[in-house]
Amino acid sequence: MELRHLRYFVAVAEELNFRRAAERLHIGQPPLSIQIRALEEELGVRLLERSKRRVSLTEAGNRFLRRAREILAAAAEAIDEARQAARGELGSLRVGFTSSLPYTSILPDLLVAYRRRYPAVELQLKEMFTTDQLAAIAEDRLDVGLVRYVGGELPAGVEVREIGSDPLCLVLAASHPLADREMVRFAELADEGFIGFPDGVGTGLPDILRRLCRQAGFEPRVVQTAREATTQVGLVGAGIGVALLPAPLACIRLPRVRYVPIADDGASFVLSVASPRTLSPQLAGFLEVLREVSGAIDQADVNR
C-alpha cells in the first residue's frame, strides 16, 4: 500500500462520487476505480458500498478514512519538517563564545537576529575559552565559536575568519596617577604590576600583554592571575595591580576602578568566528546572519 492509494481513497470517501474524485485527483475514473478495488483486495475488506446511484462508506471504510487522513497529515508534516531542516530552519546549533562577548553589541545583536529568522532552531550557548572552543569544534562537541584567536596552529578541519576587533583598555584603580588620563602609552607602565590571565587558559591576552610591553621596551611583571575578567576588575579596585582588558568590559562599573584607552598600535583584541570546513544548513544560516550583523564574512565563505 502506497500513500497515493490513501489519497485516492480519501478523495473518493470525501466526494462519495468516483467522477468528482477523479477530477479532483486529475486522473481518469477507470484507473481510480481499479486502484480502490486493489486497495480493498490488499486490505481484505470492503471500504465502499457502490450502486448505480450512490457511493457510501462501510463501517470499515469510516474507520479507515480517519486513519488514512492521520497518515497523510503525518506524511505531509514529515515532508515539511525535512524540507525545513534542509533549509536550516529546524534542529539545534551549539554556539560557543568567549566571556567578553556578552559585553559587546555583536553577540546580543547576532542572537536577536538569528532567533528572529530561525525561531525553531534551538541554540545551545556555551561560554568557553578560545582554545577550548577550537578543540570542541574539532571534536564535534561544538558547531561554531566566537573566539579571540591571536594565531597559532589550528585543529584539523577547523577554520577561523576575522569578523572584527575591540580596542583594549587599561584598567586602573581610581587612585592611580594615570586614572584621569584620556589615554595611556605602555611606555608609562614599565614599573606597574599587572593582573592577567594565567598562561594556557585559552585566551590570547597574555600574549598581547607581553607584545605591547616588549614594544615599549620592558617585560611585564605579573603580580596576580585570575581566570575571569570580572575578577581582575575587582582586584584592580582593591589596589592589587593594573589589568589589560577589552574596552567593552568598561560597562562593569565599580567605584574604585577607571578604564583608560591605550595609545599604542596593536592594542586591540580580534574577534573571529571558528567553524568546521563542512557546514550544516543550520550553521550556514547562522554564518549568514553573522555576516549581516558584522558585515565581515564573505558570502562565498557561507556558500562554499
Can you give a write-up of this model?
The chain has 304 residues and is an alpha/beta fold. It folds into three domains: 3-86, Winged helix-like DNA-binding domain superfamily/Winged helix DNA-binding domain (Arc Repressor Mutant, subunit A), CATH 1.10.10.10; 96-163 and 277-302, Periplasmic binding protein-like II (D-Maltodextrin-Binding Protein, domain 2); 165-269, Periplasmic binding protein-like II (D-Maltodextrin-Binding Protein, domain 2, 3-Layer(aba) Sandwich), CATH 3.40.190.10. 40% of the residues lie in helices and 22% in strands. It is built from ten helices and eleven strands. It has helices at 3-15, 18-25, 29-43, 59-86, 106-117, 130-138, 205-215, 229-237, 281-294, 299-302; strands at 48-50, 55-57, 91-97, 121-127, 144-147, 158-173, 193-196, 221-225, 242-246, 257-261, 268-276. The strands form two sheets. Strands 3, 4, 5, 6, 7, 8, 9, 10 and 11 form a nine-stranded mixed sheet that branches. The chain has a two-stranded antiparallel ribbon with strand order 1-2. Helix 1 (3-15) crosses helix 4. The longest helix is centred in the first third of the chain and has 28 residues, at 59-86. The chain is rod-shaped, with a radius of gyration of 32 Å. Residues 297-304 have low confidence and may be disordered.
